[in-house]
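Sample entry (279 residues):
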Amino acid sequence: MKPISLFVALLLSSVVGAQEAGTIGKLLRNEARASDINSVRIQVDVQGGRNKRPDLRQYRTAPDQYQWNRTPYSYSEVFLRIPDRGYFTVILGDQQISGATGKFRFFDVPSGAVPMSIYLDGFLVYRTTLMAEQNSRSVLDYFVQYGLYELAVYPVDRQWYGGDWNEIWNNPYQAGCHLAGDPRIPVMPEEVFVNFYKAYKRLRFDNERMAFVKQQKQTSYTSAQIGMLLQALDFESNKVEMGKQLYEVCADKGNFFNVYSVFTFDNYKEQLMEYVTNK
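Predicted structure, serialized as tokens:
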């Protein structure tokens, strides 16, 4: 009897500990009409007409008219999970993702009321309006049987995400992949710098942080990375000293003027500016 009782106890504990659909989060009401559910098919609706073959000559933008950084008035993210099996298409505002992975991650979502529609095998199954919060990530679960639930809303770390993260595209144009004066010295990639900066920040004193950077041989940095490293130092004099050191390995010296904003006192800023001027 004991083995059977143990098995039943383990089975009950696994059931209790499992995720249960519809028990967590705020239900977002299905706004689709009953007549539309499983009858309205997904359509491509873009500016210029539905299902119209585009004339590529109209979309060949002159280089001086490229929109490198389209700055939205606000920024949000929406992460949706669908545990049910099937091929789903999710349309959020003017963005659309299709797939059978069950994970739908939307970035660059304008904050405010955003319409969301969910299609299964091309047919509408759910439609609602999501209130996307500024600089926040909304996390949701959708169940065919139970509906759409907003589980949580998390703040977005704008240091690596949000509108500021456009620099991951811009930096390669400004800095290149190597130091201009010595192609053997590569620029530290952003994904590597993330971990490098975390380790750097964990050090308690300026002399430890300066030594940590100094031991990183054969590495160059973007001006944005240099600004972050200097900003973390406690003493202005140390910012000047390390600023001089890192200017030599700055991959985009034309943008080095952005570094000066890390200084609180003008006399220290002027010391570094004078050094750069005389180089």
